[in-house]
Write the structure tokens for this entry.
Amino acid sequence: MVILGSTGSIGASCLDVIASLEDRFEAFGLSAHTSAEALYEQVQRWQPRYAVLTDPRAARNFAEQRLPSRTCFLQGVEGIGRMVADADADIVVTAIVGAAGLTGTWLALEAGKTVAVANKETLVMAGSLVMELAASRGARVLPVDSEHSAIFQALQAGQPGEVQRVVLTASGGPFRGRKRHELSDVTPEEALCHPTWRMGPKITIDSATLMNKALEVIEARWLFGLLPEQIEVILHPESIVHSFVEFTDGSVLAQLSPPDMRLPIQYALTYPKRVAGPAKRLNWSELEALHFEAPDRETFPALDLGYEVARRGGTCGAVLNAANEAAVARFLTGRLAFLDIPRACRAILDHHHYSARPTLSELGVLDRWARQEVERWTSNSSPGRTK
Ligand code: MG
């Protein structure tokens, strides 16, 4: 197994799964961007064939001679390309956060590998191109996102034409139940306090704005070939039901488990089999009730952006994704108000040059453009705009 982004939160969970299934899986390749020290520790423990650092400066400073003799150290995107294309690599887990994950996913699919996609931004940016590439190479794309894994698991009960709709569950994040005017001056610290999941900072902020669910609507649209009107979102604060699939006969199937990413990761790795693993078990005696409620779309306008982008497709996903990444980065460093994250995305989506069938390189250009636009939009916006 190759893990792209092995030092992040999903990467660590992935290695946890391998640790408990060492008779089945081997960490064949590990990659990080700048976290050289963490990568070094993982390499010592897992003795992979490849270790890659993608950031040129981190790679230059990486003490190559300290690595085990069986580990080949590579750098940059070229290094990722060589590692994922190795004939001995079977599964590639793409756990890099953000748009940076697209290249690795693309290279792995080009090499015909099974890809377990934990990087939803790849499908948001270029879902139609990615799924077309996978089909043309006979490569399998398996979901790792907990909601999409739940849908994928429930889908095993029927045929593709028998799906009426899917319902994605959302915890609602730390601000569930609050009104818009109560969110104008929330701090990054407050937004980073997720009630049920422990994740990296970018996705935690996305959960607080509900942008994460917006991105997941788009992800589901491409991953399962659904129409946007077949996808619904419901808040479920306990994060026990990870999503529902409703079939044409009216039967609804759900997947339930405690919030623990090791389970969806493991299912992607052992699919279509199931084996005992490290994930936490449901304790029914501790489970008092499961709650469901409609999302507040006025307070959390990001959700509507997700539906709009899922409908329009083309260049919209890349623009929304890049604008959101840039806006979240600014929010985390105190340079943008919380409510301005979806507002900036809205503004930039509205004035981008839309095309229905962009190429991958056009999406790359738009990705950079949208990030610059967030900078411009922020410096033009007056403080009063956040109210
Ligand atoms: Mg998710």
